[in-house]
Design goal:
- Strands 1-2-3-4-5-6-7-8 form an eight-stranded parallel beta barrel, surrounded by eight helices.
- By secondary structure, it is an alpha/beta fold.
- It contains 14 helices and eight strands.
- The two termini are about 35 Å apart.
- Helix 9 (about 195-205) links the parallel strand 6 and strand 7.
- The protein has two domains: about 10-240, TIM Barrel (Alpha-Beta Barrel); about 270-300.
Amino acid sequence: MSDFLERPQSRNARLRQLLRSPPVLAVGAHDGLSARLVEQAGFDVVYMGGFATTGSLLGRPDMALLSGSEMIENARRMAQAVTIPMIADADTGYGNAIDVIRTVHDYEASGVSGIHLEDQKAPKRCGHMQGKDVIPAGEMVGKLKAAVAARSDKDFVIIARTDSLAIHGVDEAIDRALRYRDAGADVLWVEAPKDEAQLADIAKRLEGCTVCLNWLENGVTPMITMEKIKEYGFGLVLYPIGSVLTLVSALREHYASVRRNGTPLDRVGQLPSFSDYTKTVGIQEITELAKKFDDADRAAQS
């Protein structure tokens, strides 16, 4: 579990090591609390996506409404809440290749262990929405080369995502993915395949690469089983929006009950206890640290 005093130093290398033994499951979270719950559930990697971040911070859709600095600050808070590696959404890099350099520097400084960059035109939108478009492949190659050159730790993972499948078809998407590999990307991601035939084709034609599957809960891509994930050979699997979907479902039920009854009495038995919650957020650790330093201060004054 996370240590409030000591910050882990080897999470980038840990993510690299995990990717050598696929599939790696990166479970979505949207804030520090949900990130802690991912770690406490026993997962090795947590994921911060733009869809969940925009929804939780703004209550709005993922349509380029958050700035890079807002995304990075949320990533910083989440990374500080856990000890496991975190992968974060860096959208389009928030500008051109020069902007990507700053984006990589800032995400590295935030404590995340990897980011993904996509080839959408600005303003971007969730990859499972309609109306998106992509930049020229050569421009994206330049961004990825800038990202690779900018990282200070060679273990920091660069994931290249292409959204071109919906616009130009699977052949163009795979061609782009291979060009992005040659530009230095560590992981390749073809966004929003529409059926299992496309999933299998992508995995086969990118064999030998680490390929990401965006297992979007109730998205346009088929929600395949773990057996199929292993059969196709996906190396990294993201479960990006389950945290906010679960939040919406639970809070709707809770608020409806309070509105209906006037108090939360009917719901209290289904909620964690106060002591369970405070244990989840690490009250014992904070209390022990407070006592340690309070005792040290008293000893110095005596």
